[in-house]
């Protein structure tokens, strides 16, 4: 480029300092003369259509060995355009090297260095002439040292914005040839949303638009130095990157002209050339994508004429249903006409689809697993949208409830949604987040877990799921989902009764530990961990939202629901990306402090005895073994606590107590005492909302004895069967040996006899 010609064309008037109308330009010129003579000297002051320019010679401070060819003294121009804009620094040398951190300039302009990554609204708060001089000097020094790009800085965009933006979906970008499009402007005229013409409602003002989309291969993309200003220079830019724009347009436009009647709207629309350009960091790694559109004001038909493939006609009688007809013989490209067709660079914002959501969440692989969430109440209505905004899951929502006025205190619904089904409300919200064809969420209005009820839609959704999330806060629903024949992995999420904690139960991917098992393990931690004391305590204050029985809700502020839901969503997403099962608890303090507790899912062994199933996890087995070993050579024992489901005939052993202080143990026998036993049972039931209860006894056998019940044991199991028969439960005894455990079972009947199932520890 010719720097002198540019100076003459852009700043044709040479003036004196007193003639400067920009106070910032005058301050800068005077500062250089009076205080920065050792660094710079004013060569000329200029004025033109682009503003006022202070032309300087500037000592760059370049070291002996420079990474880039910077001279010891460079000629620069600092442009002050007035108003709310940052001073713009040109290097007035036609062969100045292309480096990182340069501003994009128009074709025919010198290179411009980027001395400040702040916006002018922020930078102007501290701007002084001295700071400007120091920033210019710092840029040259860093460039010479090869240190322009700090690893903590964002990568340079490929092109700086013009203030105009369009929003369109990736689907439209990728399939732009298949439908007529329009750009609907906002009230400022600088932002337009591109939609199919078929979706345009009423008589909305819109610009007909035809999109031609291209992708630049990463290997051929480098930072752009100048912004193309016309179709000719745009074609040159793309040619250097492996794309023959004119050849491709000739093919595309010829197809439309061959059926001009059908494509009349497209032929008479404006052309937007959309280019997807990879952004690479200085180390060569790809750091994202820059979408740009170059919008021409001329009609597509006029561009076809300049490309030599069409003629313009004045009437339909001449065969021009669209005002243009195909040339019988393709002519030469009119390069002068194409150069005269200006293009406006416009930023393109792809709509929020699954891919974009995934990348913004810091992940790399979109998550299109099928997820069924049961429960559209407070926790479900917050956690599911949070995960959807991270690009996670294809959703089905199951709930039979309706949104009532009091639900608005902690729900994503609004006043106009009252009386709507929660399933439909949440599914609609999830479907509206991502602009993807597969983002439609399904709503199923049904109750889950009620005995005798069957719903084919529910069963089909669960059978087809990859992930099932119980957000119902219902034991019936959780246990129904745990037992369902679906092969999907299960999760359960819920708030504590007081709303000051949230819980996540995540099965391992092989479902060797189920939600039922995790429920029992979670309750053991609640009664065992001092830090979790009161975790499931019923709140003192509640609110009756009607006079009906059970029409009571807890007093939990939305701010707390949102905070805990965010923690649960992060934990659920993280757990879903691993194979291991886990129990996580988040407790929120009154000052906003968060305590987190995490426990692995313990391996479970199941004993099937007399139509009942008894489950025993590795954590409890280890606890019993440790208590046995601690008391050797004497026998020991105590009570068992567990979770009972009588209709399902399942008992999950959760905890075993140490021998009471008044117990008697010897190498040949054990008599359990009673000191503190009732208090322990009462406390455990209180701490777990009555879910953990007394379910039987355990005791140990000495080495070499085995685990089969002795005569004394048989007498005790008979007594237990009598006691538990009043609760329609079997008598249960666990015997711990040196390397085995035995579960001994007995029910009262006319011909009752004990049944035992043994297992290695």
Automatic annotation (TrEMBL):
Signal peptide: none
Pfam families hit by this protein: Prok-E2_A, Prok-JAB, ThiF
Keyword Kinase: no
Gene Ontology MF terms in the entry: metal ion binding; metallopeptidase activity; ubiquitin-like modifier activating enzyme activity
GO terms for biological process, alphabetical: proteolysis
Family annotation (InterPro entries): JAB_dom_prok, Prok-E2_A, ThiF_NAD_FAD-bd, Ubiquitin-activating_enz
Keywords: Hydrolase, Metal-binding, Metalloprotease, Protease, Zinc
Boundaries of every JAB domain copy: 619-736
Residue ranges of every copy of the THIF-type NAD/FAD binding fold domain listed in the record: 370-483
Gene3D superfamilies: Cytidine Deaminase, domain 2, NAD(P)-binding Rossmann-like Domain
Protein name: JAB domain-containing protein
The species this protein was found in: Marinibacterium profundimaris
């Amino acid at each position: 480029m010719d720097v002198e010609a540019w100076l003459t064309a852009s700043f044709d008037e040479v003036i004196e300092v007193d003639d400067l109308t920009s106070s910032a330009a005058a301050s800068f010129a005077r500062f250089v003369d009076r205080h920065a003579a050792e660094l710079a000297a004013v060569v000329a002051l200029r004025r033109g259509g682009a503003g006022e320019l202070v032309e300087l010679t500037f000592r760059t401070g370049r070291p002996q060995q420079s990474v880039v060819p910077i001279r010891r003294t460079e000629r620069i121009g600092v442009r002050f355009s007035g108003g709310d804009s940052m001073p713009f620094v040109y290097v007035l040398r036609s062969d100045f090297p292309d480096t990182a951190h340069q501003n994009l300039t128009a074709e025919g302009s010198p290179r411009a260095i980027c001395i400040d990554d702040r916006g002018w609204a922020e930078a102007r708060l501290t701007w002084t002439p001295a700071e400007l001089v120091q920033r210019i000097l710092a840029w040259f020094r860093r460039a010479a040292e090869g240190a322009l790009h700090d690893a903590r800085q964002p990568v340079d965009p490929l092109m700086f914005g013009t203030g105009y933006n369009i929003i369109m979906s990736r689907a439209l970008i990728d399939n732009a040839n298949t439908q007529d499009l329009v750009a609907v402007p906002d009230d400022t005229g600088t932002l337009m949303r591109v939609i199919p013409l078929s979706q345009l409602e009423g008589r909305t003002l819109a610009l007909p638009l035809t999109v031609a989309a291209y992708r630049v291969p990463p290997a051929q993309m480098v930072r752009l130095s100048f912004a193309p200003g016309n179709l000719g220079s745009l074609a040159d830019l793309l040619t250097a990157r492996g794309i023959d724009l004119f050849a491709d347009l000739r093919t595309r436009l010829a197809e439309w002209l061959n059926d001009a009647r059908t494509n009349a709207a497209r032929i008479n629309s404006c052309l937007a050339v959309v280019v997807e350009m990879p952004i690479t960091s200085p180390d060569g790694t790809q750091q994202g994508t820059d979408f740009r559109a170059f919008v021409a004001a001329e009609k597509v038909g006029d561009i076809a004429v300049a490309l030599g493939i069409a003629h313009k006609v004045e009437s339909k009688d001449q065969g021009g249903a669209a005002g243009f007809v195909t040339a019988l013989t393709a002519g030469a490209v009119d390069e002068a006409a194409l150069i005269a067709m200006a293009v406006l660079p416009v930023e393109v914002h792809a709509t929020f689809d699954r891919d974009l959501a995934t990348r913004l969440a810091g992940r790399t692989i979109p998550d299109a697993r099928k997820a069924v969430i049961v429960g559209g109440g407070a926790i479900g209505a917050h956690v599911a949208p949070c995960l959807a905004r991270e690009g996670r899951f294809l959703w089905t929502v199951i709930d039979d409830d309706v949104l009532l006025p009091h639900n608005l205190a902690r729900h994503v619904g609004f006043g106009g949604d009252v009386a709507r089904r929660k399933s439909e409300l949440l599914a609609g919200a999830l479907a509206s987040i991502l602009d993807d064809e597969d983002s439609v969420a399904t709503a199923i209005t049904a109750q889950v877990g009620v005995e005798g009820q069957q719903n084919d839609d529910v069963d089909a959704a669960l059978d087809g799921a990859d992930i099932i999330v119980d957000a119902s806060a219902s034991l019936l629903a959780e246990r129904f989902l745990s037992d369902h024949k679906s092969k999907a992995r299960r999760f359960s999420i819920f708030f504590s009764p007081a709303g000051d904690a949230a819980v996540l139960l995540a099965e391992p991917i092989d479902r060797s530990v189920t939600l039922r098992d995790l429920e029992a393990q979670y309750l053991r931690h609640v009664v065992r961990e001092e830090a979790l004391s009161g975790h499931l305590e019923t709140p003192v204050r509640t609110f009756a939202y009607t006079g009906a029985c059970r029409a009571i809700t807890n007093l939990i502020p939305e701010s707390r629901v949102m905070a805990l839901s965010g923690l649960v969503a992060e934990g659920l997403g993280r757990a879903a990306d691993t194979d291991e099962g886990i129990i996580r608890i988040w407790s929120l303090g009154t000052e906003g402090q968060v305590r987190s507790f995490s426990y692995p899912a313990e391996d479970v062994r199941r004993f099937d005895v007399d139509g009942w199933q008894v489950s025993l996890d590795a954590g409890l087995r280890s606890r019993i073994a440790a208590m046995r070993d601690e008391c050797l050579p004497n026998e020991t024992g105590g009570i068992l606590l567990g979770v009972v489901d009588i209709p399902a005939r399942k008992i999950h052993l959760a905890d075993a107590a140490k021998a009471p202080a008044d117990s008697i143990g010897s190498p040949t026998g054990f008599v359990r005492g009673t000191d503190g036993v009732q208090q322990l049972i009462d406390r455990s039931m209180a701490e777990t909302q009555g879910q953990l209860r007394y379910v039987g006894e355990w005791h140990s056998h000495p080495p070499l004895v085995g685990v089969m019940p002795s005569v004394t044991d048989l007498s005790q199991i008979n007594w237990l069967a009598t006691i538990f028969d009043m609760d329609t439960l079997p008598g249960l005894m666990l015997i711990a040996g040196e390397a085995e455990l035995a579960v001994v079972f007995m029910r009262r009947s006319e011909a009752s006899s004990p049944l035992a199932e043994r297992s290695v520890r």
